[in-house]
Design goal:
five-stranded antiparallel beta sheet, alpha+beta, globular, about 25% helix, about 130 residues, 3 helices, Dna Ligase, domain 1
């Protein structure tokens, strides 16, 4: 059984992109799906789709590569962990990697990227970073 679905999903995406795989399959949760929505909006993955087999749901993620075949994902990092939650106010999550990276934040307005959270003026739990 997996204790942290977000960590498992990020690890699977990271490993698949390092190996140059076309796609990978993740276990479904609403939080993982919200994170993948942000990854797709920011251009880190090509697409994702939810598949249902019997009772369980899975997410099939299509990874994105540049014209040279190199993954567009340089690093995916889990920041807030089950043993140590990390919370930040909106003014501390303004930019990441000089605007080249994205921080995913769980706020009272839903799961948002750092840009959206700053515009709305909300802080929250910092889930992960990607660049």
């Amino acid at each position: 059984m997996i204790n942290d679905m977000v960590s498992d999903a990020l690890t699977r995406v990271r490993n698949a992109s390092m190996r140059g795989l076309e796609s990978t399959t993740l276990l479904h949760s609403n939080l993982v799906e919200a994170i993948l929505r942000i990854f797709k909006e920011k251009g880190y993955i090509e697409d994702y789709s939810v598949k249902e087999e019997n009772v369980k749901k899975f997410i099939n993620v299509t990874l994105k590569y540049d014209e040279n075949g190199k993954s567009v994902i340089t690093e995916v990092k889990k920041i807030s962990k089950p043993g140590r939650r990390v919370y930040k106010p909106s003014n501390e999550i303004k930019k990441f990697k000089n605007g080249y990276g994205t921080i995913v934040v769980s706020t009272s307005k839903g799961v948002l990227s750092n840009d959206e959270a700053y515009k709305l003026g909300v802080g929250g739990e910092v889930l992960c970073s990607i660049w």
